[in-house]
Amino acid sequence: MPPSAFGGDLTWESLEGKRACRIKSETAGNIFDRDQWPAMIGFMTGAMVRMENAFREPLAAINWRLRTRERAALVPALTGATVEAAEGS
Q: What CA–CA distance (Å, rounded) separates 16 from 8?
């Protein structure tokens, strides 16, 4: 995904000891100041929509490739062939 797909800065953080990461967008503000809530809500909802739009297609492509690989692995198991042979390696 090109950085411009989101339309702002994203921070990627690895989560030590986990098979996951955090991807976030930040803005300055004080969550305890109710006067700032409308601006914060606007920022969060806008970032959420932009993030969903930016990641939708790349994640769908990754999901498709993983599912295709899973299906390819099932065929060799049924026929006795190896996964490498099914993938053309």
A: 25
